[in-house]
Amino acid sequence: xxxxxxxxxLRAAGSAENVAGMARFGICPAVAYGVTAPEIRSxxxxxxxxxxTAKKLWGxxxxxARILATMIADWRVVSEEEIEAWVQEFDCWSVCDSTCxxxxxxxxxxxxxxxxxxxxxPEYVRRAAFAxxxxxxxxxxxxxxxxxxxxxxxxxxxxxxxxxxVKKAVNWALRQIGKRNATLYREAMEVAAKLAxxxxxxxxxxxxxxxxxxxxxxxxxxxxxxxxAKARHKA
Length: 235
Prior knowledge:
The protein has helices at residues 3-13, 16-24, 37-47, 51-59, 63-72, 80-88, 93-102, 110-117, 123-139, 145-158, 164-178, 182-196, 201-215, 227-234. With 235 residues, the chain is mainly alpha-helical. It has two domains: 1-74, no CATH class; 93-235, Leucine-rich Repeat Variant (Alpha Horseshoe), CATH 1.25.10. Helix 11 packs antiparallel against helix 12.
């Protein structure tokens, strides 16, 4: 499909009702068709990996075209310069999170970008650092605990940022690290407890919300234990 054909298909699949629904969740990009995520994924499966088409789709500025671009872009060839250009154009949290979850975590410079963007001034760029941490906790199976332990420092530093889409991403990153394994669970609980006792309103919300979710998780869950410990737990 050409870019024009892809846009026509997305436009036909959208609805004004969906656009209004997205706005209620804070998704208010410059241009949106109101296409559902399953439909976008369906188009992505048809196109498969096509980096040149991804770049053209991103250039349209259309919400769904940009999300589709993150699904078909080739992480093996995407450059830091391209990614930096894309990140500077984020205009809503859904594009930010899709870029991190679908594409950025795969790149060889993902962890470096986490550090670089964690101090960024633009709201969605700083959010990207923590959305990327959240994606890496799920997908980067080979990353050592030390990577995520270092991320706690970034979380503590950004926790005082009162901007809605930053603090929610910081909270997301903290909760996801706590779900990675038993060791990080305990350390994430400690970080969350300290934030919950902070003088900063934003930090208190991040810490308290993370504690609520993490406390609901049983640290003896087999997901967090070795096979030997799992057997003892069952016994």
